[in-house]
Amino acid sequence: MFGYVIPDKLNMFMKDYYGYRAFYCGLCKSIGRRCSQLMRIGTTYDMTFLNVLAHAVLDVELEMKPGTCVLNRVQKKLICKDDEITGTVVDISTILAHYKCVDDVRDDKSLSKKFIDRAVIKKHYKKARKRLPDLDAYIKEEYARLALLESEKCPSVDRVADCFANIMTRIGECVLGEKYDGALRDLMYNLGKWVYCADAIDDADDDFKKGKYNPFLQGYEYKDKAAFLEDNKQKLEFVMMSCYNSILADFDKIQVKKYEGILTNILWYGMLNSTRELLRRTEKCKKVRI
After folding, report:
1. Share of residues in the chain with pLDDT > 70 (%)
2. What pTM did the predictor assign?
3. What pLDDT score does 286 carry?
4. How many Å from the N-terminal Cα to the C-terminal Cα in the chain?
5. How far apart are CA 196 and CA 200, in angstroms?
6. What is the spatial distance between Cα 142 and Cα 139, in angstroms, rounded to a whole number?
7. What Å distances lie between residue 34 and 60, 132, 251, CA to CA?
8. Mean pLDDT over residues 68-72, rounded?
9. What's the confidence (pLDDT) of residue 289?
10. Cα separation, 175 vs 165, whole angstroms
11. DSSP bridge pairs for 72
12. CB-based burial of residue 67 (10 Å sphere; 0-12 exposed, 13-18 middle, 19+ buried)?
């Protein structure tokens, strides 16, 4: 995934901040144990959110214990212990990382991404695929549909975003199982659509310079990022805020007892901040580790 589903740390209660950081660091360490230390670079906010959501919906409390990070061997902090749910999230993250590399190689002919996939990700992807074969097959199918729409220069944002939205919907089903109801399904779909659109807006300048497909650039005479954001302000705001408001409406229907503060902060405040940043920044939105 792409790293836009982030918390608003300045408006987080301390208990929620430390809890979220424990989830993030716990996921990072789980990736290191289950895959390799190099794979830990791929730890994302989006997968951390999925892990928090899964534990909240399934009503499973993760044990937290003091530990150190590879980036700071001196200062200890709370880190969530590994469990079965986190293991599934790691497998999903690995599968998505593989297909993201495949997609980038197809679009950019990127030798670096091809090397990273073959040298670092591929062997771990094969293990994850064995554990989640149905999900892997579905993601592969949706990425193929996305590639076809991109090759056709599809002008419809909804049609191309539907591919990643469907992927997120199936991911939710894989993690949540019997607890997966209509509201959660809608939330995951709208979240997937929001993430795809966020990435497309963020990449508009790079896509234009590289001659790559971008649904927001179809039929638009691109000059620069500032002009793009200003000329398409109403359209971009409508797309992003429609998805955002739908996510909030879906979340309002979901009952969780654990980690509600973390989820509320991410969905109500963090994603709103990300939306505002995407609609005003002419440079790429940079993500800083928690």
Report:
1. 96
2. 0.93
3. 60
4. 17
5. 6
6. 5
7. 21, 15, 31
8. 71
9. 46
10. 16
11. 69
12. middle
